[in-house]
Amino acid sequence: xxxILETLEQTQKANIRNVIFVRSKDTFWVSFIETLKKQFxxxxxxxxxxxxxxxxxxxxxxxxxxxxxxxxxxxxxxLSICSGSIPGNGCIVIRINHPCEYSDNFSKxxxxxxxxxxxxx
Length: 121
Hints:
Layout: H1 2-10, E1 18-22, H2 27-39, E2 43-47, H3 52-58, E3 65-69, H4 76-85, E4 92-96, H5 104-116
Parallel strand pairs: 1-2, 1-3, 3-4
Helix pairs in contact: 1-5
């Protein structure tokens, strides 16, 4: 989690205002979101789980960053839309796995995703 927070600190230069968490009810996610709220004064919007049409609607409301729990069943085509394939939508989509899956390799991919605004698969 420390590496993720350090990476997110660098995004403040990118003027990221609104963040949506699409997550399960795992206690890790509750803890992660609380940590982010303490660390940043940005406008964080946390959501449980959005069906395809609900998430698509939210992305029209100037959402800058979507953090996804990939244990949830979310359509890959929708994620392509989220990642900026629609003109004018510069939303960054980041996949965060369960903490037991964290590794140096994952942290590098996480950083590159933020840097390049690409989608991780």
